[in-house]
Amino acid sequence: ENLDRSALIKKVLIEGIQQERFNFAIKKYLLQEISLERAAEIAKISLHELIAKITQLGIPSNLTIEDFKKLI
Question: What InterPro entries does the database record attribute to this sequence (predicted)?
């Protein structure tokens, strides 16, 4: 990508914030403080995307039947 310096800094900051949001959501999910659906909301990604990411990371899911029905 051909970005100027300020655009590059902005891009890096946005990506960092998104990653921190994801990390926070996953931490709360693993501590069973929030649901998978709430983790997706905090991470500002879809439930489908969150499930795909945690699967790639090898994080076990505690999906309930209700959660599964929302995916269908």
Answer: UPF0175
CA-based angle 41:27:14, to the nearest 5?
55
Collapsed DSSP state (helix, strand, coil) of residue 55: helix
What's the pTM value of the predicted model, to 2 decimals? 0.75
Is residue 47 within 8 A of residue 37, CB to CB? The reply is yes
Q: Is the sign of the CA dihedral 39, 43, 49, 55 positive or negative? A: negative
Q: What value does the mean pLDDT take over residues 1-27? A: 90
User: Where are the alpha helices (H) located in 1-72, listed in sequence order?
Assistant: 5-30, 36-43, 47-57, 65-71
Where do the domains of the chain lie? 5-71
Residue 42: pLDDT over 60: yes
